[in-house]
Every structure is written in C-alpha cells, then in structure tokens.
Amino acid sequence: xTDGRTAPAALARAGDAWFQALVDLSPDTIFVIxxxxxxxxxxxxxxxxxxxxxADLQDRPAIEFMHPDYRDPGTARMRSLTxxxxxxxxxxxxxxxxxxxVVDIEAAGTPLEFQGRPAxxxxxxxxxxxxRAEAExxxxxxxxxxxxRNAPTGMAILDATGSVTEANPALAVLLAESAAGIVGNxxxxxxxxxxxxxxxxxxxxxxxxxxxASRGDLRxxxxxxxxxxxxxxxxxxxxxxxxxxxxxxxxxxxxxxQQLTQQARMDPLTELPNRATLLEHLARALDMRLSQVxxxxxxxxxxxQINDGYGHAAGDELLRSMGRRLRGAIRSExxxxxxxxxxxxxxxxxxxxxxxxQGLTTRIRDVVRQPVxxxxxxVSVDVxxxxxxxxxxxxxxxxxxxxxxxxxxRAKTARHGTxxxxx
Length: 423
Known about the structure:
The chain has 3 domains: 14-126, 2-Layer Sandwich (Beta-Lactamase); 145-253, PAS domain (Beta-Lactamase, 2-Layer Sandwich), CATH 3.30.450.20; 266-422, Reverse transcriptase/Diguanylate cyclase domain (Alpha-Beta Plaits, 2-Layer Sandwich). It has 13 helices and 17 strands. It has helices at 7-25, 43-49, 71-82, 128-150, 169-175, 179-182, 193-207, 251-265, 275-286, 303-310, 312-329, 353-369, 397-414; strands at 29-34, 37-41, 88-96, 102-114, 117-126, 154-158, 164-167, 213-221, 227-237, 242-249, 293-301, 335-340, 343-349, 372-374, 377-379, 382-390, 421-422. Strands 2-1-5-4-3 form a 5-stranded antiparallel sheet. A 5-stranded antiparallel sheet has the order 7-6-10-9-8, with helices on both faces. Strands 12-13-11-16-17 form a 5-stranded mixed sheet, sandwiched between helices. Strand 14 and strand 15 form a beta hairpin. The longest helix is centred in the N-terminal third of the chain and has 23 residues, at 128-150. It is rod-shaped, with a radius of gyration of 45 Å. It holds the Pfam family PAS_8. Residues 123-150 form a coiled coil.
C-alpha cells in the first residue's frame, strides 16, 4: 500500500516504463533529434542505421545520415520543426547507414522538448523494398511502352468492352487509319462481317475468364477499303482489367497457303482439278445416298501419235487446249478434271444427270474433234467416252469411276458413236 503522496510518482514511473516498451516494440523507426544530434533511437531505428547503441550515432550530426541529395531540404525541415515548431507531414527521403548502405524511408515529425531544449520526434518507416518495386514497375512500364510504340506488328490496349484505349503506329498502318481514329472503337469494327461474330465471341470469352487467350486468323476490312488477313492474339494484362491485342498481317502468308492448296488440288498443266480432287468431289456427291451421279470417263484418241510425232511440248500444248475446251463445254454446276495422261473425267449430279450425260457426250466429241493449232502445226484428235450412273447406295467414288473407265474401254473397242453406259 502507498500513501497519497507516493501513488502519483509510482504511476508516473509505470507510465514511463509502458511508454518505453511501446516505443521499443514499435514496428516503426523512432528518433529524437536535439541540437542536431540523435539523442534517442528505438531498436528499429538503431537497426535501420546499422547501429548497436545510440552512442554509435552521436559521432556525427544527424543530418549527415541523410543522403546528400536530401540534406538541404532536410536541414530546412529540421529547422522548421525545432525552431518554428511546425509539424512535418510524411515525406520520402533517403538515409545512409553506418556501413554506407542507402535506405528509402517515409518520415513524419513533431516538435517536442528534450531536457528543456527544442527537439524533434521523427517517426519513419523503411520503404526500400516498395521503392525498388515501384522502380522496377516503372522500368517495366517504360520498356512495355517502348516495345508497344516501336513494335513492327500492330498492338492495341483494350478495355473491358473490347474498345481500343491505345493503338501503336504499326496498327495505324495495318488498318489504314490514324491512331486517334482507332481509339474508342472496338477492334472488331475493322473485322469483316463474315468473321465479326467470331471476333466478338473470342474477346468476351477472354474477358469472362473462360479462356486464357484468344487467337485466330480473321478477315479485316481496312479503312481504305482493301482487305487483309490478320492473325489476332488477345491476352489479359495482369490485374489491370485491360487486355492487349497483337495483330499481325498474314495476307501474304494466306495467299501463299491458298496457292499451295490450289496447286495441291489442281493439275498444273491444264489447271483443271486433279485426280485427288476429282475423287473427293465424287465422294461428296455420292454422300447424298439417293441422288444420282453420272461420271463421264474421257480418253483422247490419237494423242499418243501426236505426242510421239511432234514431241512432249506439243502434247502438253494439246492437253492444255483440251482442258480449256472441256471447261467451256460443261455447265457451271458440273465438274470436270484431268485424271492423268490423256484421261479426263466429268461429273454430273441431279435426277436428270443420265440424260444430260448423253447430251454432254455429244458436245464433248464436237469440241474435241475440232482441229487444234499447235506451234508445230495443226492436229486433230478424237475422244472415247464411257458413262457410268449410280448412287451412293450402289457405288463408292472409286467404284463408280472404275465403272465409267470400263465403259470407256468398251466404247473405244466398239468404235461407234454411242457411249456404252454401265448401270
């Protein structure tokens, strides 16, 4: 028990102990600076500056622990605190540790008295890691912006609706539109109507988090009216709510691809569909199980003699001429191709295909028999025609073609004008 005179002193001593514990355990750095020197530093403050005791800090003025770039404004702020009694709002500064290392801090201060003299209480928090992260982020953003501006391919930043918020110069060239004219519009505004729904669906799936990326080749309609094939790749920009679009002009690649496809499907000499394409077309026609299909198998009579007598160049010239004539002899909905050598095939579909095959046979004979003017001289050939008619329930593609081939050989052997039909 204490009397009334000793209780206030005991409470004061207890309060000092509680305050000391609070200061020592604070996660923030706490300094007291008086007459230009550190007179107090809590455990966090000593560790921040690389000191073991307060005495380690008292060999030099407190301002010398501040980075040289910050000393002049730091001196002014300390004078305002101690001489003018003005509190200091949080500012960012750099301190130099005893070992020479530099740390970033944000600090605030308030004036106070220490042993009857003006002093300043400084509360600081180390932000070195945060500043490093901010610097790295700023550098990354600068690198991204530099890459964005100078990328040889079109790039755009899209918002959550798919509208363009930024467009790089390469995209302006690709779309034949100014960057200002691109911004504010959804990127699919330039997509051809045939592909626009697919473009929208891909973006919305990405925005909804259903897919990680959306990519594909789309037909674009440029602002100058020209068309282009564009490979579009969309992805999310992490934690930004925005998306990045890469757009690459693949028009030339598409044209080359189509040319290769065309070459793979066409006979290079006559520019008619080749054997593989003929069989593919015939198979599709027979897939309509109850629909009749007529196949005309054509073999040029006299071609070998011309090829042997005038040379292969003349034979090739003759085949090219026959290809043009056969293409002109059939209707647009019918099909004709070169099987190989001097053999050609015509394919007719529909319920009246057998009747039309008879008429087409006559027309083919007429156009083939007309003389052909070659570089080596004028020549004439004839043609043997075999017709086979069937449906998908009775033939497959190779079977119906073989039946027409057999009919052609019977016609060639018979040497008469009416084709022999195989049913």
